[in-house]
Specification:
- The protein is mainly alpha-helical and about 400 residues long.
- It folds into two domains: about 5-310, Fic-like fold; about 330-409, Winged helix-like DNA-binding domain superfamily/Winged helix DNA-binding domain (Arc Repressor Mutant, subunit A, Orthogonal Bundle), CATH 1.10.10.10.
- It is about 60% helix and about 10% strand.
- It is built from 18 helices and nine strands.
- The strands form four sheets. It has a three-stranded antiparallel β-sheet.
- Helix 4 packs across helix 12 (about 265-270), helix 4 packs parallel to helix 15 and helix 12 packs across helix 14 (about 290-330).
- The radius of gyration is 25 Å and the shape is elongated.
- The protein starts with 5 loop residues before the first helix and ends with a helix.
- The mean pLDDT is about 90.
- InterPro entries: Fido, Fido-like_dom_sf, Fido_containing, WH_DNA-bd_sf.
């Protein structure tokens, strides 16, 4: 028998609707959360509070299993990458993720801008413009974020990643959070009203912490539902989407892997309609707080991101073998020359043509002196393998004709 949404059953068979809800809510395979919401329709609260619950369907269990196996495969593939390339590959995903989380919220940023901020952070240099610096730092060390234990942790997350981006009129005006009402729109109509006043926000966030830290609900279900509940509460006037997605990513990074975690917003951005529909439908009065289908949608998004990662890594690892064979057959190159050229080609494979490396970065990656690196790059330049694109700092890039020879001939 097909498992259907309660809202659909209501319109198809109203007589059996209450019985079906009771069966699901009280079932042996149901996880009850002690998280309550007032259902919302057309941006207005409708009806009495309901408790969120998840029925552990075959579809959900299968998704959870597939995601765990995918994470194992991703970790194994990362181990097979050249060690020096892992950091740069993660940083590429990081920039894509931050660009995507900004785009979802309609916040303007460019990959170039984010890349420059990341470079400054890597060099322990302060940026004159603090824009996105906190966001970048927090995501860069996402695996080191501690579990949330007190409501002040939510405010700290806000201060760390978005407070510098939010205008003065939209800053929190309560003790920790907002004290007034806030409406959420889809651009044309109100879709939700956040919890208020601040005393209620604090109460709801405390419930969320108890759920995260004590519930027996399977972790992946728990993290996805925590994201919904945080968005439902909407503790700030602005920045809820970015802080809410980072909240779930910080837990996913520890449960699965950091590469899966920093691909979530990027994948959501590819199918925003599915994401917003999942959030909105869970709040619908006729669904009576059932979060099964919301969790299914969110886990499908997570799995889609993993599958894209696996496909990308598979192609990259296949190209690595081609690079090793090609470079190994270049008799004109010394061992150190092969090391430098191999490094440049493998970075190109995993990071792409937009990322170029200074001589200093190359020295660090291959463990050779500046004099040695400069000498080898000059030789490679004479052979039209690389070209100098910048003097200060000295920066080389691979010649396009050479790249084509390696990968397409």
């Amino acid at each position: 028998m097909k498992y259907e949404k309660l809202s659909k059953i209501f319109y198809k068979d109203e007589l059996n609707y209450k019985e079906e809800y009771a069966k699901r809510f009280n079932g042996y395979g149901t996880y009850r959360t002690n998280l309550f919401i007032k259902p919302v329709i057309k941006g207005k609260y409708a009806g009495d509070s309901v408790e969120l619950f998840i029925v552990n369907t075959d579809g959900l269990m299968k998704l959870q299993e597939e995601i765990l196996l995918n994470s194992f495969q991703i970790r194994e593939m990362i181990k097979s990458m050249p060690k020096f390339a892992v950091k740069f590959y993660f940083e590429k995903l990081l920039i894509n993720e931050l660009q995507s989380t900004n785009e979802i919220e309609g916040v303007r940023s460019t990959k170039q801008e984010l890349s420059e901020i990341l470079s400054l952070i890597n060099e322990n240099r302060e940026s004159k413009n603090k824009r996105f610096t906190g966001l970048m730092k927090t995501y860069k060390y996402i695996g080191q974020i501690n579990d949330f234990e007190k409501i002040e942790d939510f405010r700290k997350l806000y201060d760390d990643i978005v407070s510098d981006e939010v205008d003065s009129k939209s800053q929190p005006d309560g003790e920790l959070f907002r004290k007034d009402v806030v409406s959420i729109t889809d651009g044309s109509k109100i879709t939700h009203v956040g919890v208020y006043p601040e005393s209620n926000i604090k109460d709801y966030l405390n419930r969320l912490l108890i759920f995260l830290n004590t519930s027996d609900t399977p972790d992946l279900y728990k993290y996805m539902l925590a994201h919904y509940y945080y968005e439902y509460i909407h503790p700030f006037y602005d920045g809820n989407g970015r802080t809410g997605r980072l909240l779930v990513c910080s837990y996913v990074a520890k449960k699965l892997d950091e590469f899966t975690a920093v691909s979530l917003s990027y994948t959501i951005n590819q199918d925003k309609q599915k994401y917003y529909k999942a959030l909105e439908e869970l709040s619908h009065p006729m669904n009576k707080g059932e979060a099964t289908f919301y969790c299914q949608s969110m886990l499908e998004i997570l799995k889609d991101g993993q599958e894209s990662l696996i496909e990308d890594l598979s192609l990259g690892l296949a190209k690595v073998e081609r690079v090793r064979k090609y470079v190994g057959n270049l008799e004109s190159l010394s061992r150190d020359g092969m090391s430098i050229l191999g490094s440049l080609l493998m970075i190109h494979v995993f990071v792409g043509a937009d990322r170029v490396f200074t001589n200093a970065e190359i020295q660090k990656n291959v463990g050779l002196s500046r004099h040695k690196v400069d000498k080898i790059l000059l030789e490679l330049e004479k052979e039209k393998i690389v070209k100098k694109i910048k003097d200060r700092p000295t920066t080389y890039d691979l010649e396009e004709a050479f790249i084509n020879k390696v990968f397409f001939e």
